[in-house]
Amino acid sequence: MQKILSTTLIGMVLGVGSLAHAAEDLPSIQKDNKAAYIIKSSVGVNSSGDQDVCGDSELTERKMRFFVQHALASTAFNYQKAMITGDCTAEGFIRSKNGKTYRLTIDSATGWAALAVGNRTRYLYCERCEGILDKDFSLD
User: Is the pTM of this model over 0.85?
Assistant: First the structure.
């Protein structure tokens, strides 16, 4: 029993360390003016994979940059509380100058996104970005 407990504690400590490292990535991405932003899906899809529902949504490089510049790191708990089932999402990649590639999945209506690298995911919130996938979303 004690061996299981110590293994669990080591796993928890390592997990916390991984989250702390993931949290450090956002500020460096926000400062990286040479990062490449690559659109994977310019038209959003909902959780069922339906693009028809999201026909008025659009992800651009400028919108990705805007989101990252205004985002704050948060938790999976907060993301799950705010998540809207059926919301349109779009995805792109950020390739930083240090060679890391991040997957950015933006939810349209809520102002939330998931930033993933490897098996680590960090949840981001941008209050100014609610509705960011709408075609008439203002970047000003």
Answer: no
